[in-house]
Design a protein that fits this description.
The chain has 286 residues and is of the alpha/beta class. The chain is 45% helix and 14% strand.
């Protein structure tokens, strides 16, 4: 069964949780560069998510686009790191599990607020999607986006590369007033625009919301479009302790928030700043 068919037919799909926080727990710097520098560590995390029952794994390539790599001086080759990320996740997937190639923000602002045009971002995302497709992914996920325009550039770039399903998810600053991103995009506006762009599923992840607030945002999106909705909240609101950002919601509380997301009509659930223990609990509850 193709991933597109799986998304259309399944009433509930369990995605994986965070990669970066698990790399940090292993004493490594967070980021996709680990696909090249520490592939065994990345593979081990993928395998543990697969072992606890996640049906879809996500490549460790979140910001491995050319603009982000070059502007942040990450020092990896764009093609090498995305191919490695795709192949590591694919090698961890067992029978019936799928892999999404992960794309996210360039970290730069679009015109007129910044120096980058939509056509430039489209080309950068298309390049990254090309290498992920070459690595064998079953579909793409555009996630943790703050700007709807940038998200649409990424969706378009993915769809130009291959006839694979594209999931798109934005990060919200607030659940009030219909949900708003940092750039002021509303949940309704986002849902309608992404549906028009031809995504296979859409929703919310990460951001400044706890799981219950994420449920409120995705409920708005669910009412706007006839598409599967995804929710991948953090384990609570981010809290700065010293120089560390902490997400300290317990697995029990996180599970209650995921239940609220399911009540809101979500069909794909996962986590952002969470770990494998939370995935195990959530698997039992849903």
């Amino acid at each position: 069964m193709s991933l597109a068919e799986f998304i259309r037919q399944e009433s509930l799909i369990l995605l994986d949780g965070a990669m970066g926080t698990q790399l940090a727990a292993a004493g490594l710097e967070m980021g996709g560069q680990n696909c090249v520098s520490h592939p065994d560590a990345v593979l081990a995390i993928h395998k543990e998510y697969a072992a606890v029952g996640c049906q879809i794994l996500t490549t460790n390539t979140l910001t491995m686009n050319r603009i982000n790599i070059e502007t942040h001086g990450i020092g990896v080759d764009v093609r090498e790191v995305n191919l490695a990320g795709a192949r590591l996740a694919k090698s961890a997937a067992t029978g019936g599990q799928y892999v999404l190639g992960d794309l996210s923000s360039t970290g730069q602002m679009l015109e007129p607020y910044g120096d980058y045009s939509e056509s430039r971002l489209y080309d950068v995302f298309r390049e990254q999607a090309t290498y992920l497709f070459e690595g064998g992914v079953d579909g793409f996920i555009v996630e943790t986006m703050l700007d709807l325009r940038e998200a649409l550039c990424a969706v378009g770039g993915c769809k130009a590369v291959a006839p694979l399903p594209v999931i798109a998810s934005l990060s919200f600053q607030t659940a009030e007033n219909g949900g708003r991103t940092m750039m002021g995009n509303s949940a309704k506006e986002i849902a309608v625009a992404l549906a028009d762009a031809g995504v296979a599923a859409l929703g919310a992840n990460c951001g400044e919301l706890d799981p219950g607030e994420t449920a409120a945002v995705v409920a708005v999106m669910r009412k706007c479009v006839d598409l599967p909705v995804i929710a991948q909240p953090n384990a609570g609101k981010p809290r700065l302790v010293g120089d560390r950002t902490i997400f300290d919601t317990s697995p029990d509380e996180f599970g209650k928030g995921i239940a609220q997301c399911l009540d809101a009509g979500v069909r794909l659930v996962g986590g952002c700043r969470i770990g494998r223990r939370t995935c195990r609990l959530r698997r039992r509850e849903v």
